Each structure stands twice: as C-alpha cells, then as structure tokens.
Amino acid sequence: MDWIAFDPLRALLGGALIGFAAFMLMLRLGRIAGVSGILAQGVFGAGDERSWRLAFLGGIVLGAIAMAYALGGFQPVFSGGWPVLVIGGLLVGFGTRLGSGCTSGHGICGLARFSKRSLAATLTFMAVAIATVFVMRHVIAG
Amino acid sequence: MLRLFSALLAGFALGAGLVLSGMANPQKVLAFLDLAAIASGGWDPSLALVMAGALAVAVPGFAWLRRLEKPALADSFAWPQATRIDRPLIAGSAIFGLGWGLAGICPGPALAILGLDGYQALVFFAAMLGGMALHRLTANRPALRQG
Lengths: 142, 147
Known about the structure:
By secondary structure, chain A is mainly α. Chain A contains six helices and no strands. Chain B is mainly alpha-helical.
C-alpha cells in the first residue's frame, strides 16, 4: 500500500537533516539530541539549563511547520482513536524515561557513537514495536 | 542568547527532517514496523533509509567532535558515560516499543506534529508527559528504583 508513497530520496535527505541536528547540538552545546530526555528535563526540570531545552523543543515544532509549508501540506494519519493515543502516549513517556532514551537518543545519537547500551535499547524497542504491530494488525484485526 | 539560537536551530533541523522524511506521520512508521507486509508487497522501508541518512551524517560528525576539546558554547562535551546494559534500560525500551508499536509515534514526531494537527497530537503529547511524570514519581522511591 505504501510502496507508492515510498520516496527514498526524501527519506535519506530527511534522515540527513536529523543527523545534522544531532551534530549541531553536540558541536555548539555539547549535548546529545535525545528528545525524550530534553523534553522531560525541559518541562519538569529547573534552573538555567532549562532554557536551551525549551528552545530546542520549540525548534522542532517550528521546523516541522516550516517543512510542512514548504512541501505544500503535511497531514499525519493516526492509527486509532483516543484510547490508542492515550495508552500509547503513557507507555512512550514512561518507557523512554525508564530506558533513558528514545529513537533519537539511543537510535541515532547512541548508534552514531557505537554505544552497545544504545544498540541493546534500539534492538529492544524495535523488536517489541514490530511484534506489537504484528499482533494488532495480523492477530487481533486478523 | 547564542546558545538558545543554536538549540533552536538544531531543533528546527530535527523537526524539518522528521516531516521531510515522513517519520512525523504515524502511518508511515507503522508501515515500516509491519514486517508481515513484506510478503504482500506493502512494506514501507522508509525508516531504515532515514536511519541510514541520519547515521551517514552523525557518525563522521561525532567522530570529528570526539577530537575537539570542548564545544563552541559550553565548557565540555556531555558524552553519555553509562555503558551497563541493565534491567531498567531493557524494560524501559520494551515499554517504549509497546507504545510506539501501538500509536506509531515516538517523542520527536510527537513534538513535530503538535503544530500540524489538532486534538490527536495534543492527546498523545499530554499522555506522554503524563507517562514521564509517572516515572518521576516512581523513580524517587528507592524500593522501585532497582526494578
């Protein structure tokens, strides 16, 4: 179904922008661009280390709006109603804090510095996510 | 001020990259995670290429930064020091994977779609903050910290 929408060049270029963001934050501020950690400490943390985190988070929102505008529109399609969003959100929020990172922190920054810890985390959340989609789409929805 | 601008710029590139790559769209993420669709020809390999594109920049970038003494606008590089593969890491990643597989949204895209969609992005974002707050509560209790 989505082979039609599969655009290798966009995927690679978009990925390169994500990699550049990680490089940029480390080059200028010396920080890992892990969104879950920056979000939690930006929202719940205190002190002057909070302001750059909020600027980074605001940048994500603005960059997404700008790119959506440049592409002539971008409409995310969700997989379920609000129960899926609420349960999914709770699990993602809790899990990324307990596991010290998400797709950006472990999946990109961690792998980019060849961290075995981040590789273990990435393989774990990938495997569980793949299994979850399999159960939701091919076992329950059959 | 320069620090704030640099952080904003890095976030801007991340948000733009998430939209350009299609990873801010839960449907595309789930289409990658649905490996059973390989057989039926409906699999979307995008996420693998996004990772490849990101690592193609970040691997040489980090390798170069490793040789610098300090970042441009801070006293030192905050390279993560933890190396132990422990239970919280694996349990947390598994819980995250479950939520990611259900909704198709991880923290970066959750922020990216905040300005692009109405109530659905807000509902997920609020629930995600709730999950983070819940972790803060439990993490402060020593009996649970080892779990």
